[in-house]
Every structure is written in C-alpha cells, then in structure tokens.
Specification:
Number of helices: 11
Helix content: 40-55%
Number of strands: 9
Strand order of the largest sheet: 6-5-1-7-8-9
Shape: globular
Order of helices and strands: EEEHEHHHEHHHEHHHEHEE
Distance between the termini: 29 Å
Largest sheet: 6 strands, mixed
Radius of gyration: 20 Å
C-alpha cells in the first residue's frame, strides 16, 4: 500500500469545473423544434454548443410544446435509466477513438491524480449522487491503472497529513471519503434550487433577477458554497500558512463574465487569503482555455 507523504510540501489548489463541453463533449441533446423552409415546425435534437448559438433565434427555434422542461428532459435524472452515465461513457469512448476531449479534460485528470478537492458545477438537473457517479466513471475510464494508483497514494498521504490517519481503509473506502469531500451542483436540480431559495442572500438576489440571469446566479451560489467548504475545511485541519488557490473553468462566456465579476465583487474581498483564477474555455482552438480573471497571485500553474 503506497502512501505519498510528500503531499505535505504542496500548496493548496482546488478546482471548479463545468461539465458539458468543458470536460467532455457529451452526446446529450436538447430537444427543440425548428421551422423548416415549408414553415412546419419539426422536433430536432441540438448539442449544447449548437444551442448556445441558436437559443436567441426565436424565429427558427423554439422549445417543444411542453416548454423548456421538456426541451431539457435528457439533462435530468430519468427513472429507470442512467442517462448521464450512459452519455459519459459514450463521450469517453469517442475520446478513445480519437475525438478531442473538452479543454478541461486533462485538468480534471490531473486534479484526480493529485487527489485535490474539486467541485462540479453544471447547468444540468441531476442529483449530486448522479454527478458523483459520473466522476467515478471518469476515474475508471479516463485514468490509467498507474494514474489510479498515483491517486490512491496521494489520497492516503493527505489522510495521514491532514486527518492524522494511520490505519487506512480499502481503496474503495478511501475513494468514497475523498469524493464525499468534493461538491456536485447541478443548478437546475429542484433540491439545489430549494437550497438557494432558502438562502437569505440569494433569495433577495432572485427576487430582482431576470430569467436570463438566474442560471448565472445559481452558478455563483454553487461556487460560493464550495469556497466556503474549502475555507472551513482548512480552518479545521491546517490553517492558511501556505498558498491557497481556486480555479474555475467554463465554456459559456456569459458564465465566465458573471463569475469573474462575482469573484472581484464578493469572493476576493471576503476570502482575502484565497487566490482565484477563471478560465474561459469557449474557444475550441485553445487547448486549455484562456485565463480571463485573476485575483491575488498572477499564476496558477497546472490548470
């Protein structure tokens, strides 16, 4: 059983990832209706990337008769079907056959290999346990056996260093503990939305928000939740005697702008000891995205 005790020399780096088109190019389709040249509306499935381009084209695209809930039904948990898991496996298989992964694919791999805490923040509507299951699939298929062994050695190193553990559980038990320390937020999930509505700060923000700005507010809420989680964890286990950095990546330029503003306006002021970096991964020609906002230290290597 390998234990990497050298993790105690590391700084603290944590990451927040959007899922679709940032980590993986998922095959999940948004159900829309498109007006044909004959004027007849017909149902079509569009990718998340295409939807970003056509959603404002109300003359030619509209949600089906059931409205937006019907349009995004495949982005929710479906009874009797693991649709997110099936689509995640499909996306990973396409990478094995040569398809280019999302711009943050390797960043998530490195995060997992190094055993660093992370959050998944997505516009999907799945339950947290469903997103965690997708991460487990990613670990199984995207990491090699040697990389999984590296991850487990690092996880045991962190447990010995920060939690003062000397008797370790099985690999499955240690992985369970690690993943339980991470956060999984699907911001259109009903339970997530209820948590946000019950928060006094965001209840007030939602009262004056437009429909278009609500998803961005939801991502803000999820990001704040993860930053608070990291802050309290470090207070409890170690303190702030070394560099603490949090990186966020998203392929939606609207989210990038709103999160950048949110960091400058609120998070950087409230958590002065934490360094924040935002990556815009909307440009498919840039392998790892573009750094667009930095608060504190001017570099966050390894992202």
């Amino acid at each position: 059983m390998k234990v990497n005790d050298k993790v105690c020399t590391r700084d603290f780096k944590y990451y927040i990832f959007d899922w679709d088109d940032n980590i993986l190019h998922m095959p999940t389709r948004i159900r829309m209706e498109r007006r044909g040249e004959d004027g007849v509306w017909r149902e079509v499935g569009v990718s998340t990337a295409t939807f970003a381009l056509v959603r404002a084209d109300t003359e030619n695209y509209r949600p089906p008769a059931g409205g937006w809930n019907e349009a995004f039904r495949d982005f929710q948990d479906v009874p009797g079907r693991d649709n997110l898991i099936e689509d995640t496996i499909s996306a990973l298989e396409r990478i094995e056959h040569g398809e280019t992964p999302g711009p943050s694919f390797n960043a998530l791999k490195k995060t997992l290999r190094e055993g660093r805490l992370f959050a998944i923040v997505t516009a999907r509507g799945h339950a947290p346990e469903t997103l965690e299951k997708a991460v487990r699939v990613f670990i199984k298929y995207a990491l090699t056996e040697a990389e999984r062994e590296e991850m487990m050695a690092n996880l045991r190193g962190y447990r010995r260093w920060l939690d003062k553990v000397e008797k370790f559980g099985t690999d499955a038990e240690e992985l369970d503990y690690y993943l339980s320390m991470c956060r999984y937020s699907a911001v259109t999930n009903e339970q997530f939305w209820q948590r946000m509505v019950e928060d006094p700060v965001y209840r007030e923000k939602l009262a004056t928000a437009t429909n278009a700005s609500r998803p961005e507010l939801a991502k803000e809420f999820a990001i704040r939740d993860f930053v608070e989680h990291i802050f309290h964890m470090l207070q409890r286990t170690h303190g702030f005697d070394r560099s603490v950095s949090i990186g966020f990546s998203d392929d939606d330029i609207g989210n990038v702008k709103s999160v950048s503003s949110f960091i400058r306006r609120e998070l950087a002021r409230r958590f002065e000891g934490i360094k924040f970096v935002v990556y815009d991964t909307s440009d498919s020609t840039l392998a790892r995205g573009r750094k667009v906002c930095v608060s504190g230290q001017l570099n966050l290597p390894g992202f």
